[in-house]
Fold:
Amino acid sequence: MPLIKDGRFTSDKWLRPAPDATLPWYGRLLLPLDRLLAEGPALDEAGHMLGVEIPNNVALETVEPWLRRLHLIAIAFPKAADGRGFTLAQRLRRLGYKGELRASGHVIPDQYALAISCGFDTVDISDALAERQPEAHWRNAQHAMTITYQTGSGNLRSILAARWAAKA
Structure:
């Protein structure tokens, strides 16, 4: 699955072990939430860099105790029309999460600038979507939005801030 960072396709350095796979002794592990909750404490003690894949409707209380220990949180986007992942990303950033946030699944280039403004660092898409939406689409979409309606986690200025600056 292609990973998009800064508008470019890049390689993913995180290992997604199969549900029944034996885990390696060391490395970057991206685990489903249930496996993180079951095996995470031992893996954390062993020195693994831990990441978690969460659904877009997860209760943040489930993930919150792990925020300081997680290096990556991948939020599922089952379809492009489901925007709950954007809200979840903003909430995680407001809770103080500093690690990598990844939108994973059906995200389209039209949503890329929004994803960045909500706090996402990377986007993980399917091979089929990457064929239909090549890297050039993502590069162009990265800077398509220069102003927003709401204040987000990114560097974009809101319309309200622009109006206040114009009045000053």
In short: The chain has one domain: 3-167.
